[in-house]
Amino acid sequence: MMDATPLYNLSPALRLMGMGLVVALGPLAWLWLRHQGAGPARRLQALTLLTLFLTFDLVMFGAFTRLTDSGLGCPDWPGCYGQASPVGARVQIDAAEAAMPTGPVTHGKAWVEMIHRYLATGVGVLILVLTLATWRQWRRQRAAAATDIVHPGWPLLTLLWVCAQGAFGALTVTMKLFPAIVTLHLLGGVGLLVLLVVQAESYRRSAGAAPEPLAAGLRALLWLSAGAVALQIALGGWVSTNYAVLVCNTFPMCQGSWWPPMDFAQGFELWRPLGESADGSRLEFHALTAIHYTHRLFAYAVFVLLGLLAWRLARAGRLAAQRRWVLGLAALQLLTGLSNVILDWPLLAAVLHTGGAAALMTVLTWALCASHRPELSR
Asked: Is 276 considered catalytic here?
């Protein structure tokens, strides 16, 4: 007699998708009411900006989830002990919390983790709607032989990206906060912001906006700054996911030295479990020092690049709004970075530090998309 038990319980996944739909319906209804009379490009741009805003909120909440040690609040995926919410899993959570009161599984941490998943699913729904709406508009414009066509390529890439991001979210839980996976999950969130900014600017251009011309050297500096910030975010993610923030609790020196003992080989051994090296031995303190101090040293170079970029933009009289944002966010990063070290990693400063980095990458992408290198006259 065959066992009728299903191989996999789809109920938590379906309920999670339902929660994502509920999360997305409110923003979609507000957008529809607010932009009923706008043109197609304007509506698509508004939907993209709304998705961008909620994705930024998701990145911030993801940082809060990580920094409150809630990443394993529900140690399975996509549900919580096979349930759609911590309410249905209260017996299992009670047992885990009784066994380890300060451990990774508590009722509070379970709710933080599941709310993060609900928000992520809601963002996924919005990106799916954006992809379908852009595809529909593209087909209409092609049928009308329009010259300035909204292309569905970027939304489709964004949809594929958010699916991959969901897979990394699942691996974050199932691989027990594997540092490389968690860092890639953070970078995936920032990459999602970048893709949405590119889309928003492409819709703005379709609506008639013109990019600002930048000299070749200034545009190269803008690209260099964006690349440096992306690398610094990766280094910062590596610090956070390896819990290396507090190994240097003084500034500007670390452990009373300008060059403390460091083990770069072990610190930047990428594929290894949390707190261990690849051979299973304990990760040494000198390795954590190397992780932290590399991030701090590279920050100096990033601040120099951003200061130079702001000065050059001011001299050229270009991208004034983006220049002000770069200066403000760089100041925020300096203050929150120092607060993390000197004030023993306060939660608010740590979350703002992640948000500031994501916002800085968003603004630099905005500057790149809102400008272009002028063509040389023949």
From this structure: no
